[in-house]
Write a structure and sequence with these properties.
Helix content is about 45%, strand content about 10%. The chain is of the alpha/beta class and about 280 residues long.
């Protein structure tokens, strides 16, 4: 991770602007304040990606960030229709610099550094703008291992490895990264993550749990067992297969089978400095 940070610090000198890719379902949780500190005075565009999986909370976040002077746009990088809005936002961000270059008769692509934590869809954003598969993508954290320059029309984009904050002080925000797959599942206790997720979803989206798993409330462990019964994750002796239950719950959340969500609110955005 330290190597990735050093690489970004070096390449920032080559770039005209920065794109921070956030997860629209948890824009505060998926923001790395350390990256923002590195940028200095360079213009920054905040992309709330995976907007097709988020509810109106993502629009609230983007609007609040705009009001705070942070250009933000909600998109779904897997949908070609998002390319126009994203390109327009990038052009607006760099309009002054492009005008200055035009006055001098300079015609060159402006360079953007694309940064964010793992699994927010940075490479998918680049492929959206490039009109094809130019950057390596995947649905697990840590797919991009090295920097990749990609020409996208009037811009050149530098894809960088996902970089986590050096410390995750707010454990609520840290857990949300685990829910969404920004933390490698292999280093987590999935069952603990599932219990925490069930508690948070019951507080914010009880109808989603009721519809998908027939959950009618109770303590997190009781809801966990309702999920396992509904999905048939029952072992011999009527013990529950909590491991399969956790995998199913996390997969359903990440793939949108529980409906559109946004776990972060204005207080979370304020805590990380986005508003």
């Amino acid at each position: 991770m330290a190597k990735a940070v050093r690489m970004m610090e070096e390449n920032l000198k080559l770039c005209d602007a920065v794109v921070f890719v956030l997860d629209a379902r948890a824009p505060a949780s998926s923001f790395n304040p350390r990256l923002a500190d590195m940028v200095g005075a360079k213009p920054v565009l905040y992309i709330l990606n995976k907007g097709d999986l988020a509810d109106g909370g993502a629009d609230m976040a983007a609007s609040a960030m705009q009001k705070a002077g942070k250009p933000a746009v909600r998109i779904a990088a897997t949908m070609p229709s998002s390319a126009r809005a994203l390109t327009a936002a990038m052009e607006a961000l760099t309009a002054e610099k492009r005008a200055r270059l035009a006055e001098k008769g300079v015609n060159k692509p402006l360079r953007f550094l694309v940064a964010g934590i793992p699994n927010t869809g940075k490479s998918t954003v680049i492929n959206l703008l490039a009109g094809g598969k130019k950057a390596q993508v995947g649905d697990k954290a840590g797919v991009t291992r090295a920097k990749q320059w990609v020409r996208c029309g009037a811009f050149e984009l530098l894809d960088t490895p996902g970089t986590m904050p050096p410390s995750l002080v707010n454990q609520t925000l840290a857990r949300r990264l685990a829910y969404l797959g920004s933390v490698n599942d292999d280093i987590l206790d999935r069952e603990e993550v599932a219990l925490a997720l069930l508690a948070e979803l019951w507080e914010k989206y009880p109808a989603a749990l009721a519809e998908r798993y027939g959950i009618d409330g109770g303590e997190p462990l009781a809801m966990y067992e309702q999920l396992c019964r509904r999905r048939g994750f029952v072992l011999k002796g009527n013990d529950y297969d909590y491991s399969r239950g956790a995998i199913a719950l996390l997969d359903d959340l990440r793939k949108g089978r529980l409906g559109k969500i946004c776990l972060d609110d204005a207080d979370d955005l304020r805590e990380v400095g986005l508003i």
